[in-house]
Amino acid sequence: MNHIGQSFSESKTGTTLHVLIDYENVQPDILALCARDDVRVHVFVGALQTKISIDLAQAIQGLGSRASYVRISGNGPNALDFHVAYSVGHLSALDPDARFLIVSKDTGFDPLILHLCEKGIVCERVPSPPEKPVAPEKKSVPQNGSEERVKKLVACLRRQGAAKPKRRKSLQAEILCLFGKQLDTGGAGALIDEMQRRGIVSFNGDKIVYALPKTAA
Fold first, then answer.
1. Torsion angle, CA of 31/32/35/36, rounded to 10 degrees?
2. Where does the PIN-like domain lie (predicted)?
3. Which of 11, 30, 152, 160 suits 178 as a labelling partner, its CA being 20 to 30 A distant?
4. How far is CA 6 from CA 21, 74, 206, in A?
5. Where do the domains of the chain lie, and which CATH numbers do they carry?
């Protein structure tokens, strides 16, 4: 889950994208996050962290009410991670259509993200924000039906290159994140079965073997 997908560019116009930064783990440049009004930035700072970069402070100040610091309470293993997890749950309860991007190199977030995707909550993790400014979202006609979904999934997988999901469970999570609330777990499984029927994927045990077409399926 180290690519930028639906959270940034393929979700419904008008929904809020919450970017949660694990500042104990990464100290990213967030300038690219300032280009879109629907972005909210939450910077999680460890209890013992007493300094932040001037660049970050200026970027946060420029975002005004669209950005905030979250100083965690106390120390301990994964203390900041628990604060991030709570915030995702709290914000998704307040706004069920919100999207979430966790900025961290910590792969320990991935089981949480898988669970969120299974519940229809769009969430991804990336080790750093995009280097280029995030463009405003464009309205698009919803794509329905297995044919359009296969095309969309194949295009997404081709973009990922070697970072494609390697096992059925991770591919299912990828599909749930890509299509959001358009598909449930059963629908994601059916789409995998359709990909297998077309010979686009096959399985060696639980491991995926890809035969992605050069053009849309």
1. -120
2. 20-120
3. 30
4. 18, 34, 25
5. 6-126 (3.40.50.1010), 146-210 (1.10.10)
Higher pLDDT, 52 or 68: 68
Rounded CA-CA distance 187/144 in Å is 12
Q: Which residues pair with 41 in a beta bridge?
A: 19, 67
Other CB atoms within a 10 A radius of the CB of residue 22 amount to: 23
More confident residue, 136 or 71: 71
Q: How far apart are CA 156 and CA 216, in angstroms?
A: 10
Q: Tens digits of per-residue pLDDT, 55-104? A: 778 877 878 888 888 888 777 778 899 999 999 999 999 988 888 989 88
Residue position matching structure tokens 């969309």: 152
**What is the H or E stretch that residue 156 is in?**
helix 146-160
What's the pLDDT score for residue 1? 46
Beta bridge partners of residue 102, listed in sequence order: 20, 125
- The helix (H) or strand (E) run that includes residue 70 is strand 67-71
> How many H-runs (helices) and E-runs (strands) does the chain carry?
7, 7
Average the pLDDT over each of 13-22, 92-101, 128-137 and give the range with the smallest value: 128-137
* Chain center to CA of 47: 26
Side-chain half-sphere of 79: how many Cα atoms within 13 Å? Answer: 13
Q: 132 is written with which tokens?
A: 């280029």
Mark out the alpha helices in 17-66 (DSSP H runs). Answer: 54-63
